[in-house]
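Human: My hope is that you can spare some time for a protein that puzzles me. I am handing you a single protein, as its sequence and its fold in token form. Could you go through the record with me and say what the backbone is doing? Take your time, and here it is.
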Amino acid sequence: MDKIITSMLKDLQQLAEPSLKEFKTTEYIVNFLNKHNIPIDKNLKTGCFGTINADSNRTIAFRADIDALPLDREKTTYKHLCGHHSHTVGLLLALKNIINRKDRLKSNIRYIFQPAEETGGGAKFMIENNALTDVDEIYGLHGYPKMKLGEIGVKKGEVMAGSCIFKLEISGKSTHAAYPNQGNDVVVALSDYINLCQKIISRIKNPVKSGVISFCIINCGSAPNILPENIETEGTFRYFAKEEKELIKNSMEKFLQAVEIGYNVKGNLITSCNNEPVVNNDILSDKLVNILKGNTDFRIIDNFTPEMGAEDFSAYLQMVNGVYIKVGIAENENHPPLHNKNFYVTQEGVKNYIKLWEALSFVDL
């Protein structure tokens, strides 16, 4: 098994592709499914899904994401810095085992290999293509380097935050750096805007509610002695409560108006909200914990703190009940974090994915 896992991880790492361009990755998945006689309901341009029919009146879905992340700023090289290749290998090998024991299934199994988790929208794309048709509940997992190998994180309620991304351009009159009074300093204007937005979190938002605003990209300027005409920034804000989402969005717009007046500049703020918070179903979470507690391969962690990271698995949970599961993959305290260039998942980590999918397949949840 170790050799098979290692080979498949290597194959998919070499094929690593960006969101909605996972063409070779999808071909690899489809070839594996066909080789092992696993039914395919729909083979999309990127991504696919299918059903192993157990003649049950109940269908549960398992989801694996398949896209990779850019390794360089130019986005010429991609790598699975979030471990989606390991999710894919885990579900493929689990399906191979499940199809061979189909007579033991308690429910029909719908598998979903989903593109574009990293950029958001992949889950909605699969839903629009009927991946959730006749599905009663859904489960997704993610390798988690903050938990040790063998630990399984299952929690009721809020698990991951909702996310919005924003782009802002501020425009003014450029001038010589020695004479800022003869133009509009868009760099200082943006600096003040960034600081004002942090006040939304510390002074405007309810302090017991979770939220964060991060400015992650700033582009401007052509020479060290020219105050630029334009400056652009991109970032994200995260939230759990809908009212906090609206408060942050509205406050960012109001503060931009203040900066426009104060610095005599023009701003254009565009906000796009793709992911709602991931909220696990209480009843299914309790059932899952009770099932897994009887499995000696796993140690259940059910009291972890919700995180401000986002996941478009939330789109499925808007449609059907389900549970998002964190699977520990850390070999030691120094395991590279998600999105780090050195991030990896071991064979043992993938084996735990397989065990988890099989445990969900052959019990009556």
In short: The chain has a mean pLDDT of 96. The longest helix spans residues 242-263.
